[in-house]
Structure formats: C-alpha cells, structure tokens
Write a structure and sequence with these properties.
The protein has one domain. The chain contains six helices and two strands. It has a two-stranded antiparallel sheet. The longest helix is centred in the last third of the chain and has 30 residues. The protein is globular. It starts with a helix and ends with a helix. The model has no long low-confidence stretch (mean pLDDT 90). Bound molecules: zinc ion. Zinc ion binds next to helix 5.
Length: 133
C-alpha cells in the first residue's frame, strides 16, 4: 500500500478509538458487545428489510464503510449496510485470508452497491415496459 494510504488508514483507526472513547467505550470489542451497538444493528436490519444490501440474501451482520462519530453513535445509519456473512467476508478479506485495507474494502463495497443499483434500475425498466406506464 502507498505510504500515504497507510497513514490515512492508520488515522481512520485512531479516530475510531477516539470516538469510541467519547462514547464511553474502551475498545471496539466492548462497543460491539454494547446495548448501543445492538440497537443500531437492529435499526440497520429493519431499514434494509433484513436483507444483505450487497446480494439480497438474509443479513446477519452490519458492514461499516466509515467509523465517524455520528455513525458509531447511531446518529446516522447511511454508511452501514446489512450484509450476509459471505459478502462481509468477501469485501473485507482477500482470497489468501489476509485483511483488505480499508480503501480496498470501500472500493469493493461501492462496486457491489452500484451493481445492485443497476439491477434495480433494470428491474424498474422492465416493470415500466410491462405495465406500459
Ligand atoms: Zn450478501
């Protein structure tokens, strides 16, 4: 990874732990076990109808594409996506088992989300032609 990206990624994790401290958590692990995270998770699942945003299967996990204060505190949900275990693993782990860096994960997520949007668009188009409206 380019040193500048490495530095930026380090900054993301540093900020994450700073924000978590502000929210009263000693670590990300402690946060994931909290009532706050549990309620955020439920709200994300509800918003997405319990389905993986990346493939449409039943969701069991929530994927973050940012770790800013508003997201961690549950003040905004738009950078969290319900996902199945398979998609979550695919976006965050390389085929060789190593973790992808934050930016690779972000890129793959965006690609998949975009593909979903195109699929929805073509679905809308088909509905349009079939109903003739
Ligand atoms: Zn999925």
């Amino acid at each position: 990874m380019h040193p500048r990206f490495k530095e930026r990624e380090l900054c993301i994790w540093k900020k994450r732990s700073e924000y978590l401290k502000l929210l009263g958590f000693a670590s990300y692990g402690a946060y994931l076990k909290s009532e706050l995270w549990n309620s955020i998770r439920q709200r994300v699942f509800e918003r997405d109808g319990g389905k993986c945003r990346l493939c449409g299967k039943v969701a069991s996990q929530v994927h973050h594409t940012t770790y800013d204060y508003e997201t961690l505190g549950g003040y905004k949900l738009d950078k969290m996506y319900s996902s199945c275990a398979g998609c979550h693993r695919h976006v965050s782990i390389k085929p060789n088992g190593k973790r992808r860096n934050f930016f690779q994960t972000l890129g793959i997520t965006e690609l998949r989300l975009r593909r979903q949007t195109y699929d929805n668009d073509s679905l809308l188009e088909r509905m349009f032609f079939e109903t003739g409206e």
